[in-house]
Amino acid sequence: MTRLRISRAAQADLTSILKTSFEHWGEAGRARYAALLTAAMQRTAADPDGPTTKERTDLAPGVRSFHIRHARRGHGVAAPVHVLYYRVADASTLEIIRVLHERMDPNRHVDEPGSTAPKRRRR
């Protein structure tokens, strides 16, 4: 099985998402969304080029996305609104780069994988 690595930016995204879930839907809602996010990450790790993923070379070479709604079956979340952005780091590692709300412009938030410089923000 492919190993998952979560970038610091994606870790911050997940913390914020789960905090918001808790504030709006309580502990049970937060737990359901956390389970859905976990299932989405596992699904992308199992099949990074799967039919419900999207190539996002417009963001950076090798970047793909997966809307978590494709992993919602059985998790009790009616309308998931987040997208995983990831890349295959090597033969055994998938890196989650960001986890963004579907309305967010990924061009403003997804940096070049491996880049240490922050992406220049458009105004």
Quick summary:
The chain has one helix at residues 8-46, and strands at 3-6, 53-55, 63-67, 82-90, 93-101. The chain is α+β, with helices and mostly antiparallel strands and 123 residues long.
Structure in words:
The protein is of the alpha+beta class and 123 residues long. The protein is 32% helix and 24% strand. Strands 1-5-4-3-2 form a five-stranded mixed beta sheet.
What is this structure's SSE topology?
Elements: E1 3-6, H1 8-46, E2 53-55, E3 63-67, E4 82-90, E5 93-101
Parallel strand pairs: 1-5
Antiparallel strand pairs: 2-3, 3-4, 4-5
**Annotated CATH homologous superfamily:** RelE-like
Adjacency order of strands in the biggest sheet: 1-5-4-3-2
**CATH level 1 name:** Alpha Beta
Total strands: the figure is 5
Helical stretch tally = 1
Domain unit count: 1
Order of helices and strands: EHEEEE
CATH topology: YaeB-like fold
- Shape type: globular
| Strand content range | 15-25%
Distance between the termini: 41 Å
Q: What's the gyration radius in Å?
A: 14 Å
Give short descriptive properties of this protein.
123 residues, single chain, globular, YaeB-like fold, alpha+beta
